[in-house]
Amino acid sequence: MRELDHLHALGVNNLRVQAGSEGPDTEPWRIVPSMQPSPGTYNNEVLDGLDFLLYEMGKRQMRAVMCLNNFWHWSGGFAQYVAWANGTATTIPYPGSYDQFEVFSAQFYRLTKATELFDNHIRFLLARTNRYTNVAYTNDTTIMSWELANEPRRLDLSWVHRTACLLKKLAPFQLVTTGVEGSISSNNFSNDHASPCIDYATFHLWVQNWNVFDPHNASVTLPIAIDFAKKYIEFHAAYKDKPVVLEEFGIAR
User: Fold this and answer.
1) Is 62 in the same domain as 181?
2) Are 243 and 183 members of one domain?
3) TM spans, by residue (predicted)?
4) Residue 35 and residue 101 share a domain
5) What digits encode the pLDDT tens for the residues 71-118?
6) DSSP 3-state assignment of 167?
């Protein structure tokens, strides 16, 4: 609650919340404890914590973007759904090699079992009623939107449309978005958000992670990074079809 009070005092009124994390908790580089240690099995203490967070956010007039999945490994995400779909002997190729990991994680879109397991998570969570407020998640005005995933790369647009429309069917009074990084991830930004079930667009900006800024050579690379950041923002801000939100940015201190 101290952190919420601090954010509220700073004028922050919108928080992006990870609303799905997958086990097993013995895997490396994971959020632990996970919300879903195994397919369809949930940690009630984690769910209770999510209820409590939304309850406290509501008291402060904050709104939540509920991120349901993750392309990257730190919450389990796509890669864990792939491992579950392919069997327990499947080994996730953690970065290391991001190219190898991306190829593995992107199998998620074409594995029917993986996407079905995620759909089950969506249905489970959106059917939940907050035990502190007795308000159904789909009627909770604290929840502004549902986000398909954090930074989904190598997008399958049919999956985007189908999953976004599932969310719209289950939560017709809340917004739906993608969670994409923008053009850096080699997606087509306009196509990524073309589904009528997507309400607004997202992009992220990480000049150091994307090897534009080098903190060990800051005097040379910082002006380049600033120029890159301005152009990257301008490019995505020019998208006219739907509202656009820059929902992540950062650089080394």
Assistant:
1) yes
2) no
3) none
4) yes
5) 999 999 999 999 999 996 678 999 888 899 999 999 999 999 999 999
6) helix
How many structural domains comprise the chain?
2
Q: Please report where in the chains the tokens 């800024």 appear, as a residue.
A: 213
Note whether 70 and 64 are within 8 A (CB).
no
pLDDT 10s digits, 16-55: 999 999 999 999 999 999 999 999 999 999 999 999 999 9
Paired tokens of 162: 């189908």
Alpha-carbon distances of 230 from 180, 201, 217, 226, 227, rounded to whole Å: 18, 18, 20, 6, 5
203: confidence class by pLDDT, cuts 50, 70, 90: very high
List the structure tokens of 125. Answer: 């969570």
**Mean pLDDT to the nearest integer, 197-213:** 97
DSSP 92: P
Q: Which two tokens stand for residue 23?
A: 């086990």
Asked if residues 228 and 179 have their Cβ atoms less than 8 Å apart, the reply is no
Token pair listed for 224: 């380049």
Helix or strand run (H / E) with residue 244: strand 244-250
> Are residues 147 and 46 both part of a single domain?
yes
Q: How many residues does the chain have?
A: 253
The residue type at 80:
Q
Give the mean pLDDT of 235-246. 97
Q: Are residue 141 and residue 224 in the same domain, yes or no?
A: no
* Domain range enclosing 20: 2-199
Pair 62, 104 in one domain: yes
Alpha-carbon gap, residue 35 to 24, rounded angstroms:
10
d(CA 57, CA 54) in angstroms, rounded, equals 5
